């Protein structure tokens, strides 16, 4: 422990403090003023040497900073015989540096934690034997064993076994996730049970964890607009303080007063007020599975007033499922209708075929084999030859084209479509048996997410979708968005974002990054969801939500606003302290040592305030009441022709 203190950031202030105590002891116990003065000068030299070196380096780069102010003040105090003032100023400034270093280290702890979870070794199957090798030595395609309690050493795909993985280091989700064959796993996650065989797809720098560490490292060093402004302010402020001190010294003839002004005018708390908040905010986000690209984007995110959401895969799961089987022929039953539909769809490549086939299998129906002949009808449905019979599965226009009487199916189709589902009539040999319907399932937390966005201060939540208006309206009614625009092409989504910006909104666009790419690029903040394992999303999105969890979105907005509010608090504390101290020096009563003590106390206050951002906040859920917003959404829905199956 002593070695850590001596060699760490506290070595200089500890040594300087010890010399100051020795000086005081020499004066009081032995009455030796010369020895006391010598020890006090030594304390000033120990604490001030590094400060002077930094000041000289800054001057060679034509930068006049705080270190120069302290250096001039300390050297001047020694010259005029104010040894205690010189030692006190440099000692307190050294303590301030140590505190700042320790705090930035603490606020960067999220990055340190990410680095710590990076695995060192892997157990690989080679020629049937289990071989322990360095994680970086695993070759792509090799089979890695992940046992209970072990860290996953690579990104990969499960090819055997089952288990539960703690993915908190990647997604921020603390609940272990069950893994089975075909599932993705990420380096740095920890097994909480079971045995997994993983085929390695990403090793070393190619893993999701490595990309996250790289992004957080860059983000914490990136400057916000306010920070850049403060840097420019300091470049003018510091020379201004020097000029003020010289003028006051010349007018009053009081060198001590001039030197005191130099020290008191140091904007130390002001300089660290913004970076310490940004580092803490980005670090907190990284722990929670929210990657923010940098200080500028964090600051912009705090101003978000409108959020545009893609529907499929964002508000919905992106996986259609069977919702209804309506029997219309008295001679048929549910199994008959679903069975004919599933067997016909077995020869179709349409995305809506899979949920029908899966549902039939789940109900124990035999859907093996393929139709003798399959004839897709674009925009209408499919015709198939099965067991010598002609089966039609599709919309009402398909029945008209085939000359089939709808048998009362029109009313059912209209009802199901009005509920946001995609209905398909099932007919065999010209006779309607019934209607099946599929729909994409709305995410369970979608409505809560919209409510939380409003609670976080977002004024408008808009759904942008290429789906048909009826489906879009049904989803809007469930989740409570303020506005829905349906039937949109990618360029239409881009126009919608621009319209929101023209209305004065700071817009965040949330999408999958493929068909939403133009809108994501145009929005003030582009948000990628479920970015774990997606290197492109991590590198290009302004905010990447590592877990596929909607509630992370309002959490990110809330974090950004808390961070900016924290920055403003810090700036206020720093400015008020400097103004009061300067006034105190000019009016009398504030000495160099007292002023420096108060100044360093303000630095400590700024640091402690920023560290509050590192605390995990308990989840706050706003009450969900989507009805009023849904009514507005229905009124503002873009009228577009209904999309058809095809």
Automatic annotation (TrEMBL):
Residues 627-646 have a biased composition (Low complexity). It is found in: Cell membrane. One of its GO terms (cellular component) is plasma membrane. The chain crosses the membrane at residues 36-56, 233-251, 257-283, 571-590, 596-614. The keyword NAD does not apply. Its main location: membrane. Belongs to the cation transport ATPase (P-type) (TC 3.A.3) family. Type IB subfamily. This is Cation-translocating P-type ATPase. It comes from Georgenia yuyongxinii.
